[in-house]
Amino acid sequence: MYELLFPILISLASGFALIWLLWPAHKPNFPALFLRICLSLGVGFGMSSCGFFLWLVFFGPPGSVFITVETAVLFGLIGVIALWRRRSAPPPDRDVNRPSALMPRMRATVLTGFLILLLSGMVAFTMLASLEPHGDWDAWVSWNLRARFLFGAGDQWQRAFSPLTPRACPGYPVFLSGLVARSWKYAGTASPLVPVVVAALFTFGAVGLVFSALHVLRGRTQALLAGAVLLGTPFLLLHGVSQYADVPIAFFFLATIVLLTLSHRFRETRYGLLALAGLMCGLAVYTKHEGLLFLLGLTVVGIVSLVRADDRKACLKRLGAFVAGAAVPLILFIYVKAAMAPGTNYMVAALTGEAVLRRLAEPWRYVTVIWALLEQAFKVQKWCALPVVLPFYLLLTGTQVDERDRAGFSTALWLLAFMLFGHFVMFLITHDNLEWHVKWSLDRLLLQLWPAAVFLLFLVARKPEETAVGDSDAHG
Question: How far apart, in whole angstroms, are the C-alpha atoms of residue 362 and residue 94?
């Protein structure tokens, strides 16, 4: 067990150290500290996966020297932080909401409900993972299979990208496979427990990230309600057990949006937060191809903001910090596509101009996709019909947007709309059987956006205590 926990702890500690370096605080309160811990999951795992693959490319199969270097990097980051703190005291996290003003009974009810859902979710995840320790189809034939090549093929690790195994999708990004293979290197064995633990950390890490971010931005009540909504989404737990890359990329989408929002609140550390947001976006691309659509949306946002900016020099600095953060995972993604698995994206290769125009002109394709979206929204066994219920909750409570959150909220909302539109178009022009494609991928694409959508909804919804006070004043 120690051999399995040690690489995860090294990753989390390294991620936390980098976050502390880019987003320092003199005395962070608990919500801000917990938020950094949740973000360190993505940052640390991303650093570890990228570092593992870079070592493979430049030095061959990692051994004890690799482990020593990773540990040295961690202590190096800690040393830099210690020196930095001596030279200048970082600003405190002073912009944190006060505790909820809900009545004690109502506050206890919300907290109890959240804890019950959290405990139930953990028990359910553990039981399901014990029944399916190797995950589901894509985990067998793609993510974990490639991880086994990277771990055990020695100098022949490039066979992980062989076109002779087309079902393994050799052109897929390497983040998840590299992360699992790295942990196996530490343990010295390809234990099935490693991908299970990674899946659990990303699943409950998404809940923790929504909770901690909203705790900082909107207070504990909103954080508990949003966390309960995610824990009450059956498909999040069910699909987390599958060990697919959809939950990790959902985490990176969410983390990017959270960090962009925070960059408007904590202006003293804005550039560090933007660099972290860029890193999370780059890791989304390095995790799954849908990250490219997300990156494209952010690119459009960046161009528009640059055109409309009064101070273009400052805007360029902000964009530069974001690009710097995204650079390493994006370079690795391009390297895999260009050098390791060129010409393996059959979905894009099959799209010709004539075929695309013909499919766009077929009305039944629009009806099929829209009907599938409506069906998904009402599926109780996957979503508990939450996509239908939550808009009514927002209408009931009303909205209350902090002025500092408006820019981040509008950017994130535009991004989610852009992603949905992009997926809609891809379904319309797909060369695969449309009914089959929609059936096996639509729910997963929606899950990738679900944690970010829940975060945004509770970011702008009025707090229940404020709604209750408003109603009582009206009746009085």
Answer: 56
Buried b (16+ CB within 10 A) or exposed e, 57-74: eeeebbeeebbeebeebb
**Residue 104 counted as domain residue:** no
Contact of 143 with 243, CB cutoff 8 Å: yes
For residue 195, tell me if it sits in a domain. yes
B/e letters for 321-334, b = 16+ CB within 10 Å, e = fewer, are: bbbebbebbbebbe
| Count, residues in the chain | 476
Give DSSP secondary structure letters for 309-377.
-S-HHHHHHHHHHHHHHHHHHHHHHHHIIIIISTT--HHHHT--HHHHHHHHT-HHHHHHHHHHHHHHH
| Angstrom distance (rounded) from CA 444 to CA 37 | 26
SS3 27: coil
Domain that holds residue 175: 2-92+109-475
For CA atoms 171, 175, 178, 184, give the dihedral sign. negative
How confident is the model over 225-250, as pLDDT tens digits?
999 999 999 999 999 999 999 999 99
Indicate yes or no: pTM above 0.90. Answer: yes
Is residue 26 within 8 Å of residue 89, measured between CB atoms? Answer: yes
Return d(Cα 182, Cα 66) in angstroms, integer: 10
